[in-house]
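Quick one:
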Amino acid sequence: MALLWLCNVSISFQGVPVLEDVNAYVSPGARVGIIGPNGCGKSTLLRIITGDIKPGRGVVEWAKTPNIGYVPPQEDAGVFQQKTPLDLISPERAGALGRFGLPSRLWDKPAAALSGGELTRLRLALAFSKNPDVLVLDEPTNHLDIHGIQQLEAMLKEFPGTVLVVSHDRYFLDSVCSEIWLIENCNLRTYKGNYSAYLQARQAEQTHMAREYAKWQTAVDRLAVEVRARQQWYDRAHKAAGTNDYLRRRAKKHATQFKAKQRRLDKLLDQKPEKPRKLKPVTIKFQEGSHRTKTILRARDLCFRYAPGAPQVIKDACFSVSPGEKIALVGPNGSGKTTMIRLFAGELQPEAGSLWVNPNIRVGYLAQMLEHLDLSRSAADNVSTHTGRPIPEARHLLGYLGVSKHTQMLPLGKLSMGQRTKVALACLTFAPYDLLLMDEPTNHLDLIAREAVEAAVRAFPGAAIIASHDRYLVDKSCTSIWYLEQGKLHVYGGSFAEFTRWLESRKSGRPDGAAGGVDTDEAGGGHARREPPGDRKAMELALKTRLAYIASQLALADDARDKLRLETEYQEALAQLRRLEASR
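Output:
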């Protein structure tokens, strides 16, 4: 029995189709993940389901009137910015705020004063406090820290009702969803299983479509050749027959055969199967700066607080960053990740200790670029203004980033946050940088664009410091983890999977909690573990040997994918060697 039916649902805005003939149903207790490119209509579909907007055509029918808990996009949350969490949720339901990790000291503060992660927790608490039987969630993991995301996953698994969720978090979709809806080119396709199952089904579907289309094309080509040949033979025979009745009858017989094959060809053309679409890859390539140095930035006993007498946000942090390092800055919401990024960008100054940023390097800062975009001007105008490139070149770059021609000319204020982030990324890719500072760069981005960011970070020859809760990005692109907790910075020189195991063992109090490349010396902040001199020399020799081997394989590689893989391996090995040399 279905809980919800969508029958031929269509909607357009200003004459531009967004959704066309959407047909789907939702079973009670289902966990539906809705995915698709930025601007494809995911949020619009959720608003149609909640009844917030009416479709231009079609029917949305519920088996019974639902009690919906709705989490709107973060950019739509401004309507209650001046109200406090207690005003919004009422005191008798305030327990939901604590359940979602919103500290009681924030309950009587205006929502406008909350951080992005705290605001997400408030929106989730509001939705769950209504005791809903249906949850409709629009990107609920945005700005949540990793622990918060895992907590939300556990809550949704225990939730007895139905869940419809728009998300680009692949770990989250894998963990929570039992069904995936893909919106693409105004149409909706449904797939059973989680995100990994969807990928397998999608690949099998595309392979089958390609095979069937190739068979159809071969049959059409063969018939077209036969029809042309028989028509030419008939034309010649009919002309040569003149008044000879025998020859005219033979020509007429071939004309009948030619017309029969023409009918078969026409029928085959009417039965044209769907051609598999080759998605244009989203391409992001950050340019390398020209300055050569062994150290990008360095800190010693760095401390920061926002006002005298206020709690310290960062306490006695010590670290250095070398060219080629890819650092993931992680930690709970409100732990100081954005503060640290702003210190590196020069927007804030240390309270105590030292922070040295090499004055000869160029720094690209994603959040700063987003803030400087003009919402009244088009995406193309913004890119042209910030890069000095002509409009056609700006539009060309936006096309590579997956921003459609129509969207490029709309005022930026009408674009989704994911599309605005792509515009900011377009501005960053034009200038050569030695250091990239990125605060939640994949928030709001669709899955294809996220994969492009991951590849671009890996291939970028310079250093990158990325504050992120995107587990895929951290796992695939970063070579070390900086963990901020209660003002203390712990530098972990290993993979994200190893860091996760270290963090779990640390929280559980097991004796291996300090293993894996972290010095948890509370007096001096976190420091990367240093190898003995003999081990360091052996590692340097091994890395140099590996670089020489990869270079030889690159010279022999013909396949573009092999070259890209080898280039990525070369840059990763080079970054490791640079870090090792800088730590002498």
